[in-house]
Amino acid sequence: MMFWKHAEAFLRKATTPEALQDAEIRCRTGAAHLWPTKKAAVVCEPIRDYRVWLAGGDLDEIIALLPVAEKWAKAAGYDRMVIHMDDTRKGWKRLMKRHGFSEEAMLVKEL
After folding, report:
1. What domains sit in the chain, N to C, each tagged with a CATH number?
2. DSSP states of 7-68 as a string?
């Protein structure tokens, strides 16, 4: 995966080494999707909902990247994009609510 090394620098700051290795394996096998930009990266996992699993790097680029991932997820048949509450910091809760997510047991956005 040609973009992993670039994305890894951002994602390393957002998670544990074990979770980062797991994300890389899942992205390489197609079980998760890597959405890289110049200054950020997001990893999403297509489970029942389209789960934002990891995000790191420039916050403005992460926010700008989400609509691209949302468009893909909607076209692929997903109804919701989710961020599990135990996967995120409190500041993300406030920020993501401003971008269409609502709080349930996790942050959720209808697509």
Report:
1. 4-110 (3.40.630.30)
2. HHHHHGGGS-HHHHHHHHHHHHHTSSEEEE-SSEEEEEEESSSEEEEEEEE-HHHHHHHHHH
pTM score of the predicted model? 0.69
Q: Which two tokens stand for residue 64?
A: 């700008």
Cα 75–80–85 angle (5° rounding)? Answer: 140
Helix (H, G, I), strand (E, B), or coil: what is residue 97?
A: helix
Dihedrals phi, psi of 16, to nearest 5 degrees? -85, 160
pLDDT tens digits, residue range 53-64?
Answer: 888 889 899 899
Q: Average per-residue pLDDT in the chain?
A: 86
- At residue 93, does pLDDT exceed 80? no
- Structure tokens belonging to residue 63: 């926010």
Torsional class of 57: left (φ above 0), alpha (ψ -120 to 50), beta (otherwise) = left
